[in-house]
Amino acid sequence: MEASYNSRCPAVKRLFREAKELNEATEEYYAQPLEDNLFEWHFTVRGPPDTEFEGGIYHGRIIMPADYPMKPPNIIFLTPNGRFETNKKICLSISGHHPETWQPSWSIRTALLAIIGFMPTPANGTIGSLDYTAQERAKLAKKSQEFECAECGCVAKLLKERTGDNKDFQQEAREVMGQVSVTAKVEDKERKNSGTTGESAAASDATCETRIENISHGTSSRDQVDSLPQATSQATLPGSGVSASEQQPSGIPVTEPIQEILMEGVAPRNTTNPRSPVSNLGNTSSSGYLYNTVLSSAIILFVALVLRRVFLLESDVSEELDDVLL
Q: Is residue 240 part of a domain?
């Protein structure tokens, strides 16, 4: 497979090196690229002991970006487990959903350790997470040993037999998970110091999740825009205790500031100074409409004259057409 890739590409060099490092399966994890695609890996991890996932063997895919390791991979579970959705990119601080927290020094092994460490943690409503009961997860863990992958076969045979509790490995997995979590918290703290509050960041994430949910249910973007003024018409403006509806001059709808925000690249109307050019956006729009109308009429007239010349209409018809055109 090495002959089919550019060995000087940083991503290719890094992936081949990691494939050699992970070539031998362990008792807890195993990962290798597909034979015909270096940028798609299949992984297998064992459920952590003393949890509802104990005894489970879980299989999934890791999709590498072209500029790995500068950007994180996407992780997809194939085995039902009750913690992560199957056939869907899961949201972790080491996955493609959070490129801002990814570190190029991390590797596929780091991702495998983090996956094992995150499995017993609460889902907290993140993308691709599930909140099954402990009993349901225990049933899925037992059933997972029968799972077969179309590419890898029976996944239970991919790992070595467990000979002990592997406390050292479990401790390492918890440390990696803690390191990943701390990195995410530091990133959030830096974002707050740069001027973005936690409330606005949470609101942005909620808006993103709501937009994804609306799209999945077939809600059009026009419906989303129409719903914005109603939801924010009574919002308190930053830096004051007065609501947006109380600060609006008489005769101007409450939804007007929202519409101006949605019109990206268009300056808001200056209601304080009527003589300002910004306050004449309505007149500019009317002039543009008149210009388009005149231009369209001229084009139609030109096309008609060309057709008259091409088809050489009869004299009587030509005279009638000349009367119309003139």
A: no
154 & 303 share domain: no
Report how far residue 138's alpha carbon sits from residue 51's, in angstroms, rounded to the nearest whole number: 9
Amino acid at residue number 166: N
Q: Are strands 29-34 and 74-77 parallel, antiparallel or unpaired?
A: unpaired
Residue 297 CA to its chain's centroid (Å) = 46
Q: Give, in order, the Cα–Cα distances in Å from 269 to each of 233, 280, 287, 295.
A: 18, 8, 17, 28
Q: What is the pLDDT of residues 195-205, one digit of tens each?
A: 544 444 444 44
Residue 70 identity (one-letter amino acid): M
Same domain (yes/no): 175, 315 = no
Q: Name the stretches of the chain with pLDDT < 70.
A: 1, 181-287, 311-326
What is the strand order of the sheet 29-34 is part of? 29-34, 37-46, 57-63, 74-77
Is residue 216 in a domain?
Answer: no
d(CA 209, CA 126): 9
The verdict on 288 and 139 lying in the same domain is: no
Domain ranges, residue 98:
2-193
Q: What is the pLDDT of residues 184-242, one digit of tens each?
A: 444 455 555 655 444 444 444 443 343 333 433 444 444 443 443 443 334 444 444 44
Residues 26 and 139 in one domain: yes
Residues 6+ apart with CB under 8 A from 61: 40, 41, 42, 43, 75, 76, 78
* Residue 224 placed within a domain: no
Residues 7, 147, single domain; the answer is yes
Last residue of a domain, one of 147, 162, 193: 193
Residue 148's DSSP bridge partners are 154
By CB neighbour count within 10 A (0-12 exposed, 13-18 middle, 19+ buried), where does 43 fall? buried
Amino acid residing at 184: A
Strands 57-63 and 37-46: antiparallel
Q: How many CB atoms are closer than 10 A to CB 111?
A: 24
So which residues are the catalytic ones?
Answer: 91
Tally the residues of the chain.
326
Q: CA–CA separation, 147 vs 283, rounded Å?
A: 67
